[in-house]
UniProtKB/TrEMBL annotation:
UniProt source species: Callithrix jacchus (White-tufted-ear marmoset)
Record's protein name: Interleukin 24
Classification lineage: Eukaryota, Metazoa, Chordata, Craniata, Vertebrata
Subcellular location: Secreted
Chief site of localization: secreted
Family: Belongs to the IL-10 family.
Recorded superkingdom: Eukaryota
Gene Ontology molecular function, alphabetical: cytokine activity
GO cellular component: extracellular space
The keyword Secreted appears for this protein: yes
InterPro entries: 4_helix_cytokine-like_core, IL-10/19/20/24/26
Length: 152
């Protein structure tokens, strides 16, 4: 789904005369969050070959953390200025602590799943616009954690 179509669907979802789109909004929340996460992880930058994130046996190649940070900082101030829900935080730094490079994909699967469910519950309690604003505004927590696994 391209950005213009997603944007038009989101603007229509805010109108009460479109109940079908409102029902679709909760599914779009998780899909949007997942897509944003994947885009950040798999962004391909020319000349970035040989640079990778090593998460135990899993590798993500072609990622340049500096480019991710630059993209994030370009939107962070705008997103945080629009964040009216200051009492809720979706992603806490403690959630990503004590995740070892050797075990993050296997041994802590249940723990990671529980943490994700907590995150998702908080995300679903917000309206779509507030949730997307908050999720984008907290990407720095994820980027900081990812940098621990970055290798040239």
């Amino acid at each position: 789904m391209n950005f213009q179509r997603l944007q038009s669907l989101c603007s229509l979802a805010g109108r009460p005369s479109y109940p079908a789109l409102l029902a679709m909004a909760s599914r779009m929340r998780m899909a949007t969050l997942t897509c944003l996460s994947l885009l950040l992880l798999w962004i391909q930058v020319p000349g970035a070959q040989g640079q990778k994130f090593q998460f135990g046996p899993c590798q993500v190649k072609g990622v340049v953390p500096q480019k991710l940070w630059e993209a994030f900082w370009a939107v962070k101030d705008t997103m945080q200025a629009q964040d009216n829900v200051t009492s809720v935080r979706l992603l806490h730094q403690e959630v990503l602590q004590n995740v070892s490079q050797e075990n993050e994909m296997f041994a802590i699967r249940d723990s990671a799943h529980r943490r994700f469910l907590l995150f998702r519950r908080a995300f679903k309690q917000l309206d779509m616009e507030a949730a997307l604003t908050k999720a984008l505004g907290e990407v720095d927590v994820l980027l900081t954690w990812m940098q621990k696994f970055y290798k040239f």
